[in-house]
Amino acid sequence: MAGTFSITPDFLAEHNRALRADLEADYAHLAKQLARAKLDIEELTDKLQRFALAIPSWGVGTGGTRFARFPGPGEPRDVFEKLADCGTIQQLCRATPAVSLHIPWDEPKDAGVLRAAAEAQGLRFDAMNSNTFQDQPGQKHSYKFGSLTHTDAAVRAQAIAHNLHVIELGQRLGSTSITVWVGDGANFPGQANHRAALERYLESLRAIYRALPPGWVMYLEHKLYEPAFYATVNNDWGTSYWCARELGPQCRCLVDLGHHAPNTNIEMIVARLVQLGKLGGFHFNDSKYGDDDLDSGSINPFQLFLVFNELVDAAQRDPAFAPAYMLDQSHNVTDPIESLMSSAGEVQRAFAQALLVDRARLAELQQQNDALAAHRLLKQAFQTDVAPVLAMLRLRAGGAIDPLAAFRQSGYRAAKASERPAAAGHGSGIV
Ligand code: PSV
Ligand code: MN
User: Fold this and answer.
1) Nearest to residue 108, comparing CAs of 182, 53, 165?
2) Distance in angstroms (rounded) separating the CA atoms of residues 281 and 340
3) SS3 string of 354-385?
4) Which of the 8 DSSP states describes residue 319?
5) Which atom in ligand 1 lies closest to the alpha carbon of residue 129?
6) Less Cβ around it within 10 Å: N or C end of the chain?
7) 256 with 328: CB under 8 angstroms?
8) Calpha distance 38→35 (Å, rounded)
9) Whose CA is nearest to atom 9 of ligand 1?
10) What's the helix, strand, coil split of the chain in %, to 5?
11) What is the pLDDT of residues 277-319, one digit of tens each?
């Protein structure tokens, strides 16, 4: 059962009272600065107000590496406690009204009870995630050598059945999408026939696609390597695009920022998928070397900005353009709630900065081949400090001006540490 401590509206009001005057001064100053560039701060704040990001249920537990996991105090022990933490993040940040569940990690006994618990926290369920990269207790066939692409049809059938179960559960929870990521691949040259494995992948996906309810979307998540270290089946955006196109309009590609080789031009992948009509959504995180699952914007905030630069460009061409935004991070050395709040802010910041780009002027400069001026135009937007806008929209939406400070002062973590004595072997985190 979820514990009882929660941050009270009075506490939040007191926190905001202390910071409000400074924020209003900073906001007024930024409004003047933006007005010089013919930008209306209220329009910007309004656009950001409508931006929503989903929290990964697995992100509120401490993650881990191949080497160890160092659990933190007061970690959630079940899906209801995870929801409580997600609710707290939303209460303070007001940018994360949705949760992305992972099944079976978050398998509820009663979907109705779980849905009601989410609604009580002001949360809804975004994309469901199926897990066929791990064996589950009592499962008949092992995924050691693959799931949707396994050479044995019985294993593939089991993995397909799991995805159908996840869709059915998602329907009861009010979700309208499923993200499929498989760990399938090979560790040795010669181990798998690349072409045959991809054929089996597509065939299995077709069976899942046929079960999609109307209005549902299936996201395909590609990944260059890991856990398979020589080759993965859905290894890159081109493969993902081809599969999504073969399957039909209810299938789109999901870009996890960490699933590419270092230095890959991810914003260009985004541009390509947008142009081809198959960009479905994101798993935001940051990385230095591989799928490091570091906090969004902590390593390469400029890349995050450039991704949003493409998304704002896409939205300008097509106002109906609405990809799904999710975080997908693993927190090894920080408090997961703090990391998720800070990452939500970094993603919002990148979006806000991308909204500042003068697109008509940029097109002119591109037409004139004025490389440096075009680059400086982007840099100017990227270097604008939009923090007052982000804080103001949190304040107006009933959140905290400074979520991190409010969280630390609230005593939430200490209260959860006593409410949630550590349980051995609980399902939080990724090891
Ligand atoms: C795989 O690395 C991934 O990015 C997929 O989205 C999984 O669902 C998630 O991480 C958690 O393992
Ligand atoms: Mn991911």
Assistant:
1) 165
2) 18
3) HHCCCHHHHHHHHHCCCHHHHHHHHHHHHCCC
4) T
5) 8
6) N
7) yes
8) 5
9) 328
10) 50, 10, 40
11) 999 999 999 999 999 999 999 999 999 999 999 999 999 999 9
Q: In the predicted model, is pLDDT for residue 36 greater than 90? A: yes
Q: Quick one: which of 181, 199, 303, 210 has its CA closest to 242?
A: 199
User: Between helices 9-36 and 41-49, what is the axis angle to 10°?
Assistant: 130
Instruction: Output the average pLDDT for the chain.
Output: 96
User: Which residues, at least 6 apart from 326, have a Cβ–Cβ distance to it below 8 Å?
Assistant: 53, 54, 55, 56, 100, 126, 127, 281, 282, 283, 284
Name the DSSP class of 294: B
Residue 324 main-chain phi, psi, to 5 deg: -90, 130
Number of H-type helices and E-type strands within the chain:
15, 12
* Dist. CA 256 → ligand 2 center (Å): 5
Give per-residue pLDDT as tens, 256-283.
999 999 999 999 999 999 999 999 999 9
Would you say the pTM of this structure is higher than 0.85?
yes
| Ligand 1 within 6 A of CB of 129 | yes
- Closest ligand 1 atom to residue 430 Cα is 12
Tell me: the pLDDT tens digits for 406-428? Answer: 999 999 999 999 999 986 655 44
Q: Is the CB of 255 under 6 A from ligand 1?
A: no
Q: Do the Cβ atoms of 227 and 133 come closer than 8 Å?
A: yes
Ligand 1: residue whose CA is nearest its atom 5: 181
Quote the ligand 1 centre to 210 CA distance (angstroms): 24
Helix (H) or strand (E) holding 348: helix 336-355
Residue 129: the pLDDT is: 98
Enter the tokens of residue 170.
């998602």
Share of the chain above pLDDT 70, in %: 97
Residue 181 Cα to ligand 1 midpoint, Å, equals: 7
Mutating to test ligand 1, I would choose from 181, 255, 257 the residue with most ligand atoms within 8 A of its C-beta, which is 181
Give the residue among 95, 92, 37, 84 at the shortest CA–CA distance from 60.
84
Q: Identify the residue whose C-alpha is closest to ligand 1 atom 10.
A: 328
Residue that has been written with the tokens 């800070």 in this structure:
342
